[in-house]
Amino acid sequence: MSLEEMEDLQLDEKDLRLETKEVNGVLMTKLISDTWDKIWNFQAKPDDLLIVTYAKAGTTWTQEIVDMIQNDGDIQKCQRANTYDRQPFLEWILPPPLTSGLDLANKMPSPRTMKSHLPVNMIPPSFWKKNSKIIYVARNAKDILVSYYYFSRMNKMVPDPGTWEEYIEAFQAGKVLWGSWYDHVKEWWEAKDQHPILYLFYEDMKEDPKREIRKILKFMEKDISEEVLNKIVYYTSFDVMKHNSMANYTTFPKSIMDHSISPFMRKGMPGDWKRHFTVAQNEEFDKHYQKKMAGSTLTFRTEI
Ligand code: PPS
Predict the structure, then answer these.
(1) 186 pLDDT band (50/70/90 cuts)?
(2) Cα(269) to centroid of ligand 1, in Å?
(3) CATH code of 87's domain
(4) Does residue 300 lie within any of the structural domains?
(5) Active site (annotated) includes residue 117
(6) pLDDT above 90 for 97
(7) Which residue's CA is the closest to the ligand 1 atom numbered 4?
(8) What pLDDT sits at residue 188?
(9) Of 249, 275, 285, 302, which cross-links 264 as Cys (Cβ 3.0–4.6 Å)?
(10) pLDDT confidence of 10, banded at 50, 70, 90?
(11) What residue ranges line ligand 1, CB within 6 angstroms?
């Protein structure tokens, strides 16, 4: 059953919010946790491309860029299906009869491009064995927190975020789906020198999308004309993608994603956190941040 068909089931919010259960101390949905062996044993191939992010770091944006590159800027081809059907969400397990990302990935003909939010030590080991390419995108913690908060309100499948104050605490403690942002970005940063990993920043992509798309092209060993490159920059800009129903999650049943609470394509700007953190919250967050990130060479820009 497709997600679109699920709309007819008229499910209540309490039946939708997925239960959680940790895997290796990292909060996941119970469905992911119960299917963990199958996810861990996923068989990657050398020509797979995996796009990894902590949630809300610009996954969908990067997925669209990669798909446009793979299709030489052909808009029609990129409209063939929703983002999540074009590039399966590897560890995302849905209740039957819905099709899970893992099943989609297993059935997909090569070369496959997939998405994941897994921390580096939870990536199925076959990705390392097969030397598959990985694009990692990181985004500053404050904008992630705001984006994740609104997303958790509008997406009825993930845990209810509670109040803004409660959510800041949960985020800092890593008690949100996919665990600690701090560990995620730092551990992937360490891993990037040992594997074919391209480590990008959302803020850099926003500042100069053409420059960052060129990095992706080089990493994918693809050559395209300047004209196609300009086309990709245009069609993957926030304002255009916001209206692209194959990329903006508006085809999801409203009972799952309610865009009237907050659109999936919400602001698309670094620095929106300033409209949400009070001065006191910001000071406390910065103090905690210094402790968590101490010793890492990784730095972020919280505005551009
Ligand atoms: S998810 O659910 O984890 O896959 O979400 P993800 O796609 O990683 O992140 C969603 C945020 O990315 C913004 N977005 C974009 N920003 C700039 N340009 C483009 N093209 C773009 N597409 C998506 C989206 O608006 C979410 O950020 P916020 O801050 O909430 O607006």
Answers:
(1) very high
(2) 9
(3) 3.40.50.300
(4) no
(5) yes
(6) no
(7) 59
(8) 98
(9) 249
(10) low
(11) 53, 55-61, 143, 147, 150-151, 236-238, 241, 265-268, 272
